[in-house]
Design goal:
The chain is of the alpha/beta class and 283 residues long. The protein is built from 10 helices and 11 strands. The chain has a 7-stranded parallel β-sheet with strand order 3-4-5-8-9-10-11, with helices on one face. Strands 1-2 form a two-stranded antiparallel sheet. A two-stranded antiparallel sheet has the order 6-7.
Length: 283
């Protein structure tokens, strides 16, 4: 598309001190089938989305072994391996999939080791640049789960460790065991329940990867008004708001559509005014 804004317009962030990526990434959950289960309806289109993302300077792709399961990681390898030198593929382990739409935490160390090693094989990597513990398991002490990742890091299978779906207390407990370079929690204009976790990330220089960054856009009158006035989509406005919210935020909107991908990436070049930011942020 002529004149297409690239993800580079969002600026960069250094994750873990040695992974420099553009601040608009891609979440690879939606390139799977219905219910995040099985193959997508059009695998060729899914691979095309991944290749187009890289063409648009997206150099941070987030996935997980549970997306499909296994489907997302396989498609990434099929579409992009051998990988560009600057491409960071982050994946996650710690959720199992009994069926479509079902997610069961499994934080047992043996499972995490098996999951990580399987992700390495599927992604055709010798080391995973960023491996994230997908969700704490109430049946397993958090320290045991994080400890398994520390061992994998010591073996060179993981470069950096991140956590996902954590409370502030859980983040702090993980940090007592290892440097945590990223947190991936649900966060968007309509749901700011992880505000204190984001603030902790800001104070410590930890990358914050908001999942479900685009939610409930039809219900917010200010958002619709700003989008109409700018002749952009509400999704672009909320992504621009997230980029403005903190320099540590790396939005990872997911899509299986080339059109939506290009629309999302275009948000990297959308600069909101202070008045628009204040109106969207609220009191």
């Amino acid at each position: 598309m002529a004149g297409q804004v690239s993800a580079a317009a969002a600026g960069t962030i250094s994750i873990g001190g040695d992974l420099t990526v553009n601040r608009l990434g891609l979440g690879a959950m939606r390139i799977t089938g219905t219910g995040i289960w099985g193959d997508p309806p059009d695998p060729d289109q899914a691979r095309a989305v991944l290749r187009r993302a890289v063409e648009l300077d997206v150099n941070f792709i987030d996935t997980a072994d549970s997306y499909g399961p296994e489907v997302s990681e396989n498609l990434i390898a099929e579409a992009l391996s051998p990988y560009p030198d600057d491409l960071v593929i982050a994946t996650k382990g710690g959720l199992e999939r009994p069926g479509p739409g079902q997610w069961s935490p499994n934080g047992h160390p043996a499972h995490l080791r098996e999951a990580c090693e399987a992700s390495l094989r599927r992604l055709r990597l010798e080391q995973i640049a960023l491996y994230q513990f997908h969700r704490p398991d109430p049946r397993v002490p958090l320290e045991d789960s994080i400890g398994a990742l520390v061992e994998l890091k010591a073996e060179g299978k993981i470069r950096h460790i991140g956590v996902s779906n954590v409370t502030l207390d859980q983040l702090q407990r993980a940090e007592k065991l290892t440097p945590v370079v990223s947190v991936q929690n649900r966060y968007n204009i309509a749901d700011r329940g992880s505000e204190e976790v984001l603030e902790a990330c800001e104070s410590e220089g930890i990358a914050f990867l908001p999942w479900a960054p685009i939610q409930d856009t039809s219900r917010q009158s200010a958002l619709r008004r700003i989008a109409e006035g700018r002749a952009v989509t509400p999704a672009q406005v909320v992504l621009a708001w997230l980029l403005n919210r903190s320099p540590l935020i790396v939005p990872i909107p997911g899509t299986g559509s080339l059109e939506h991908l290009e629309d999302n990436v275009a948000a990297a070049g959308l600069l909101l005014s202070p008045a628009e930011v204040a109106e969207l942020t609220g009191p």
